[in-house]
């Protein structure tokens, strides 16, 4: 039986904390500025893991490229009007979302 490294264990834990949820259920996080959108080209779990590990260099790169960004008003409205589901994971104090 293989033993997981601490990093692999933490990634697995983050994966278990992801959930598909209606965007409408996350409105309070959006309103407080805590909702961040993760580009579809990125792995939501990996982004959450890197944020939880305080990997400032990687997170800064994603923010600078726009691959991770606060959910814009336009995006929030589009998801709301489409009654969209998103994948979400909490990395306190943020909620990371990715279109399902």
From TrEMBL:
A Pfam family in this protein?
DUF2288
Record-linked InterPro entries: DUF2288
The identity of this protein, by name, is DUF2288 domain-containing protein
């Amino acid at each position: 039986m293989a033993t997981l490294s601490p990093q692999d264990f933490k990634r697995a834990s983050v994966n278990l904390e992801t959930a598909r949820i209606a965007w409408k259920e996350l409105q309070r996080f959006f309103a407080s500025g805590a909702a961040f959108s993760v580009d579809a080209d990125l792995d939501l779990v990996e982004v959450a893991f890197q944020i939880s590990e305080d990997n400032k260099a990687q997170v800064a790169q994603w923010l600078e490229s726009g691959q991770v960004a606060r959910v814009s008003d336009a995006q929030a409205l589009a998801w709301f009007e489409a009654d969209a589901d998103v994948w979400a994971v909490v990395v306190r104090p943020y909620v990371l979302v990715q279109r399902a």
